[in-house]
Write a structure and sequence with these properties.
436 residues, alpha+beta, five-stranded parallel sheet, five-stranded antiparallel sheet, 20 strands, globular, binds flavin-adenine dinucleotide
Length: 436
């Protein structure tokens, strides 16, 4: 029997945001029903099967500072040290740049890494270290947001330093080119990753797929706590009533006391559009622009390996390469990630894959041919993280309807941590509203 007989929360979307809200509410004894339109949970971070190999829709990376995501994975039964390959902060652009954080307390580890970085001149290293000290002095807060490119110019970071260090870092963190990216949001990530404990800057590479990592375990947790999680069950309409909200699904209508809409921004805008009180929210969502992420998976013979589990390429189409053999025991499986907009979008999938194959041959002498490749193009992978962006709040003008998702208001760019935090915020505010 539920401790809250009048409350039943409907959650639209079984991605990281929706499942975070579901776990948090279920843990408090609140009955929840999650509706997921796809066959499997996970949304933009989901497992994909291809030629018998377990892939993801894109190679994801977590940072040690993603504390809420890591806490929730552990809460639903994950084991962080087994689920991830944990690497100390390192940035390698094969043959051009290498930065490795030594085992020193933060932020000394970063300053030492910058001062010892290979591939930069002495004056560039000092400029980069000075920049970090200046950000530290400003407590990573800008009086006014600007683009990352503008911030770099203001702090004397020249073109080579930008190309080798700040641009790859910005694209990895914000999935937005430096000329368009919000400096403040980048500083929020740097503040949390580089300025607290050394472990916050660790890079965590998943050994398991992203549906299994959290959403699937979260569904089992929700069900153990009396909730339900329905896949292949999309919500077609949200109908606000005086004392609740009805959700229309193919099989009929279900009534809830509260609803958390955790669908992607495009779907959320469509579902909210008919609700006149939410006009402003819909306008904010529709104003968001999006950025793509392309991932090219290549299955080489098992003996093929890269020198490191993850490394970058300088001035190539492939930005980051991942060796799934070193990360997850999938020997010979390599992934090339190309984040944010660019001329690669003009290539066909075959052309893109063959370009990556040529780069692997030229950079590492890999003469073998892959037995298969798979290009996964996520055209709306994340919102474009521009300066001063107005993101919709989790609380809406309707007192029983909440919004979760990586695009909703928060400190972080579109990341798993941003998505999870938004779900947790919805759960906390919804619980609070039921007490008042
Ligand atoms: C290729 C790629 C690589 C990425 N790399 C990283 C990374 O390295 N690190 C990182 O932190 N982040 C990364 N991200 C971003 C991260 O994946 C997202 O920020 C996060 O997954 C968003 O979660 P969400 O729950 O907000 O939204 P979504 O994952 O979009 O979840 C929304 C869910 O709603 C469902 N849905 C849609 N319509 C309906 C409907 N009508 N009814 C019911 N359900 C519906 C969808 O199927 C989906 O499951 C990456 C994203 C992509 C695409």
């Amino acid at each position: 029997m539920s401790n809250h007989p009048d409350i039943h929360v409907g959650i639209i979307g079984g991605g990281y945001a929706g499942m975070a809200a579901a776990v948090e509410l279920a843990a408090q004894g609140i009955p929840v029903t999650v509706f997921e339109s796809a066959k499997q949970l996970g949304g933009r971070a989901r497992g994909v099967e291809c030629n018998g190999a377990q892939l993801d829709n894109g190679q994801h990376l977590l940072l040690g500072c993603y504390r809420d995501t890591l806490r929730l994975i552990a809460k639903v039964g994950g084991d962080i040290e087994q689920d991830f390959l944990r690497l100390p902060l390192q940035l390698d652009l094969h043959g051009h740049f290498s930065l490795r954080a030594p085992r020193l307390p933060a932020p000394l580890h970063l300053l030492t890494a910058l001062l010892k970085a290979e591939g930069l001149s002495w004056s560039e290293r000092i400029k980069a270290a000075r920049f970090m000290l200046a950000l530290h002095g400003m407590q990573f807060r800008l009086p006014q947001d600007m683009t990352v490119a503008e911030l770099l110019v203001k702090h004397g970071q020249d073109a080579d330093l930008t190309l080798k260090l700040w641009e790859p870092l910005t694209i990895a963190a914000l999935n937005t080119p430096v000329r368009k990216a919000s400096a403040q949001v980048l500083l929020n990530v740097l503040r949390d990753a580089l300025n607290r404990t050394r472990a916050d800057s660790d890079m965590l590479l998943p050994r398991t797929d992203f549906t299994a990592l959290f959403p699937q375990r979260a569904a089992a947790y929700v069900e153990r706590h009396g909730g339900e999680v329905l896949t292949s069950c999309g919500v077609e309409a949200i109908v606000p009533m005086d004392d609740g909200i009805e959700l229309v699904i193919a099989a009929g209508t279900q009534r809830f006391s509260h609803v958390v809409c955790a669908a992607s921004p495009v779907v959320a805008a469509k579902l909210l559009h008919p609700i006149t009180a939410l006009e402003n929210t819909v306008r904010q969502i529709e104003a968001l622009e999006h950025q793509p992420i392309y991932t090219v998976y290549l299955q080489y013979p098992a003996h093929v390996a890269l020198p490191h589990p993850m490394l970058g390429l300088h001035r190539r189409t492939s930005q980051w390469l991942f060796d799934k053999g070193r990360i997850a025991g999938q020997h010979g499986l390599l992934a090339s990630v190309i984040s944010a907009e660019g001329i690669h979008q003009e290539l066909s999938q075959d052309e893109l894959a063959h370009r990556v194959i040529a780069e692997l041959r030229e950079e590492f002498g890999i003469a073998d041919t892959p037995s298969w490749f798979k290009v996964i193009a996520e055209k709306r992978a994340t919102f474009c993280c521009a300066p001063g962006l107005q993101r919709p709040a989790q609380q809406t003008a309707h007192p029983r309807l909440w919004l979760a998702g990586d695009y909703t208001a928060g400190d972080y760019p579109a990341t798993l941590e941003g998505a999870v935090q938004s779900g947790l915020r919805c759960a906390a505010a919804l619980l609070q509203s039921t007490k008042s």
